[in-house]
Amino acid sequence: MSDEHFDDDEMGEDEGSFAELFEASLAEVGQPLERGKKIEATILQIGAEWSFLDVGQKGEGLLLTSELLDGDGQPQYAIGDKIGAYFLSRDGGELRFTTKIGGSGSGTEQLEDAYQGGIPVEGRIEKEIKGGFEVKLSGNVRAFCPYSQTGLRQAEPADLIGENLSFKITQFSERGRNIVVSHRAILDEEREQLRIGLRETLKAGMVVKGSVTNIRDFGAFVDIGGIEGLLPISEISYGRVEDVNDYLSLGQQLEVAIKKIDWENNKFSFSLRDTLADPWGKVGTIYQVGGKYTGKVSRLAPFGAFVTLEEGIDGLLHISKLGQGQRIRHPQDVLKVGQSLPVMIEKLEPEARRISLAPVGPDEEVGETSYSDAPSSASAGFGSLGDLLKAGQQRKERKNKQRR
Fold this sequence. Notes:
It contains 5 helices and 20 strands. By secondary structure, it is of the alpha+beta class. It has 4 domains: 61 residues, CATH 2.40.50.140; 74 residues, CATH 2.40.50.140; 73 residues, CATH 2.40.50.140; 96 residues, CATH 2.40.50.140. The N terminus is likely disordered.
């Protein structure tokens, strides 16, 4: 028997080298894969039937190329693109992945795997039934999707018939005879991923694209993809907004500015007004002291009348300017909302956004600039301010005579 032996130093070096090699091999193989686990993979090659993926393991992953094509059979991805894929199995040393289960498949066995692994399945909405829809899944297996789980709140039920969508199986029992699915779960996952990305990039003041999802008296809700926030009525326009429906409609695409972000309470607010040019930039240039313009009476108050020169620019015509020497109780005695009215600018305070106005006599010339909105029907048949004042005075005199 040989007298060869290893000293302690040599043994220590060998053990250290082995430990390093073992750790390196684990790093190369990556994290162990579990059935149904979703990973981020990189497309290495796209073949006629199968595509190869870099999945962070020692070997490549396999994915049916058909999953990379759109409904018309055209490629949706290119080599180097990253996609989300679910691990299916290790078959003969091959790592099989899918983005979703669909097509002819192997019926309920494959669907049960999808249920256990949380893998999306492809389905076609066949018809409307009590409480929801009948959905045809892989292998002509029938499933039920409740109304609330379509996630498509703006869609009419009849419009969904025939639609091919992705679903999550939320219930699988009686060996596949009782299957409940949800498209909303897919949408929620997508929104959560978008939300994570937005949390890293979204800042107050940014301008983003969104769509109107709901209209209320106090404003509208806008979805910017990942989060939904409120567009208050005061942030829709520089002008006074009485009815949100006059400015916005469901599904309308908008560019809005981020006004407030509160991730903790899930509250977000937007502004459409901040994306528009501020009309007050014209004050001091187009609108000057001494200038005469035609405006529109927009609001009456006990102390005077607000006159809109253009949307977003209002001036005050004080009640003391309306009597032509005669005392009146309220501006409504001589003016009506919606009436066109010639006025002159007496005082400008741009920083405070205040304009003081005075009436213009019927014989005085008025500049070309005027409020373009047509007068409301309430103002039809009204004459000049002088005519109205005269009529008001005549009514007052008649009342005095009756008292005598």
